[in-house]
Write a structure and sequence with these properties.
The complex is a heterodimer of chains A (262) and B (264). Chain A has 262 residues and is mostly helical. Chain A has one domain. Helices cover 76% and strands 2% of the residues of chain A. Chain A has a two-stranded antiparallel sheet with strand order 1-2. Chain A is globular, with a radius of gyration of 19 Å. The model of chain A has no long low-confidence stretch (mean pLDDT 85). Chain B has 264 residues and is mostly helical. Chain B has one domain. Chain B is 75% helix and 2% strand. Chain B has a two-stranded antiparallel ribbon with strand order 1-2. Chain B is globular. The chains are: A mainly alpha (262), B mainly alpha (264). At the A-B interface, helix 2, strand 1 and helix 8 of A face helix 2 and helix 8 of B.
Chain lengths: 262, 264
């Protein structure tokens, strides 16, 4: 375990050195993310200039949700997506051999090796919005709410991680799996609002096949004090099942990998 | 000119046929975003017991179905590749041809629309039906929608090129594009129908070109505007078309002088 942690810190160090080479880029990227978030907040404010509650969500609760949305999106783009995108390329080129030859768990190195540290800005800006929402909520947060929030957030990450791992594993059999990432990307946008406002087909998609809606809505509900314990339990169970399945599927896929260069 | 366009359209058609699946998947983005805001406004209307500033849930459904269609017909993506073309010197061969590269981009765009429309139309109808949209436009409004749509497409096309030519001067066009995209997000009529933008955003929206691209054609087809309102909006679009055309020519001329063909 300590070995894995040390390796993970090493990955972060390497990526940080890479990112810091291009400082002006860094500033430009942060500016862009700030523009995206400011306009998203403005969109929420416009909606709430006509009402006090959107399907039962107050403006403070909605700000929390929007903040959580950027935290979740930022974390996924920070760590899972870059690795998964790289993995698809490695399978196609046959360079995955080098990763597999390393004396370390293959799933670990393949899904956590690459990062886009610039996305930390997204996470930080999201936190600012979420905290602003919490302050506006007025009522103090109980320790239990915070705990539920952390558990829900972590569970959400596991769910999305498993989805991306399964998509990546499909690249052992199919060549153009990037297309599945396009579908995922299109649905991510919808997580900016609570899943309960959507019509059935979209709500179901965001809570099952592409669980990004759950990953944002459930933690936000925990902070907003409107989380039903059953939904958290159900989400935990789903995450365990998804974790077991995606791990098995990855090992299964690995067996069909032949190495393009060999 | 007709011969040139025939060749360009054929070539674009051939290259578009290669990437059908990816192309159709990208349509998901154009479909899901309006649905998101439609769902949000429907919730707002429900919270207020039926209507928001004269819009009922059925009106929102119609408006956002129309916005999906207009945004799809109006939007051109070619400009996003321009940065790459400039930085890698790919623009050079295009400049050597005895015609403005703009024509090739127009042809690619037309083909992309023709390819994707048969898929978009049923989806838009399905959205309208699931959200119980109500179509209220009168025949004259539908007729005036056509020139408004064409103006919107031309303005959007030229504006994107003005933004893209930033690539002649900086290697970080992304920041400029994001700014333009986010202003469009706010003011083109996507976040809210233009009529529902609170002041001062409402005034700002009409003072920027973005409303003329999507919001104005959409509000004309939705119906409910008087003839003089419609004509005033068409005139505004006309002004923006002239401004964008002049602006495009100016930056293109200046930019070409700046262009040093990296990698060529």
């Amino acid at each position: 375990m300590r070995r894995y942690l040390r390796l993970f810190m090493l990955f972060i160090g390497v990526e940080a050195q890479y990112e810091l080479q291009y400082r002006a880029n860094l500033v430009a990227n942060v500016l862009q993310q700030a523009m995206v978030i400011v306009t998203s907040v403005a969109a929420v404010l416009i909606l709430f200039s006509y009402t006090d509650s959107l399907n039962g969500w107050s403006i403070a609760q909605m700000l929390v949700l929007l903040g959580v949305y950027y935290v979740v999106q930022g974390m996924i783009d920070l760590i899972f997506r870059p690795s998964v995108e790289r993995l698809m390329e490695q399978v196609r080129l046959g360079t995955l051999d080098y990763a597999l030859l390393k004396p370390i768990n293959s799933q670990f190195i393949v899904t956590l090796r690459h990062m886009r540290l610039i996305q930390l800005a997204n996470v930080a800006l999201g936190l600012v919005i979420a905290v602003a929402g919490v302050v506006r909520l007025g009522e103090g947060l109980g320790a239990l709410d915070v705990l539920a929030f952390i558990v829900a957030l972590a569970t959400g990450f596991v769910l999305v991680y498993c989805l991306l791992l399964v998509i990546a594993t499909l690249s052992f059999w199919f060549v153009r799996v990037e297309n599945l990432l396009v579908i995922y990307g299109a649905f991510v946008d919808a997580a900016r609002f609570p899943v309960d406002i959507y019509p059935g087909w979209l709500r179901v998609t965001l809570s099952s096949v592409i669980p990004i809606g759950l990953a944002v809505t459930i933690p936000a509900q925990a902070i907003a004090g409107r989380l039903a314990p059953e939904s958290l339990a159900l989400m935990l169970a789903a995450a365990v099942a998804a974790w077991l399945f995606s791990g098995w599927f990855w090992r299964r896929g690995l067996r069909s990998y032949t190495g393009a260069s060999a | 000119m007709i011969g040139i366009y025939r060749a360009l359209l054929l070539a674009s058609f051939q290259s578009a046929s290669q990437y059908r699946v990816t192309m159709f998947l990208y349509l998901l983005f154009s479909i899901i975003r309006p649905v998101i805001f439609l769902a949000a406004w429907t919730a707002v209307a429900a919270a207020r017991g039926g209507t928001v500033g004269g819009f009922s849930a059925a009106d929102f459904a119609m408006y956002y179905a129309i916005v999906t269609l207009v945004a799809h017909l109006v939007t051109s993506w070619n400009a996003y590749e321009f940065e790459f073309e400039v930085q890698h010197g790919r623009l050079s061969p295009k400049l050597l041809r005895p015609m403005h590269p703009l024509h090739q981009w127009i042809a690619e765009n037309l083909v992309w629309k023709a390819f994707t429309l048969p898929v978009m139309l049923p989806v838009i109808v399905a959205i309208a039906v699931t959200f119980n949209a109500r179509f209220t436009a009168e025949p004259w409004q539908v007729m005036l929608f056509v020139p408004s749509l064409l103006l919107g497409a031309a303005i959007q096309f030229l504006w994107n090129w003005i933004v893209a030519t930033a690539a002649f001067w900086t290697t970080r066009v992304n920041a400029v594009t994001t700014l333009s995209d986010r202003l469009g997000f706010m003011f083109a009529g996507l976040v809210a129908p233009l009529a529902l933008l609170p002041e001062p955003l409402h005034t700002i929206a009409y003072a920027l070109p973005f409303a003329s691209m999507i919001g104005i054609p959409a509000e004309i087809l939705r119906g409910g505007l008087t003839p003089s309102d419609v004509l005033a909006r068409l005139a505004l679009q006309g002004v923006w078309l002239v401004l964008c055309f002049a602006g495009y020519q100016a930056v293109w001329r200046l930019g070409l002088r700046q262009y040093s063909a990296v990698g060529a």
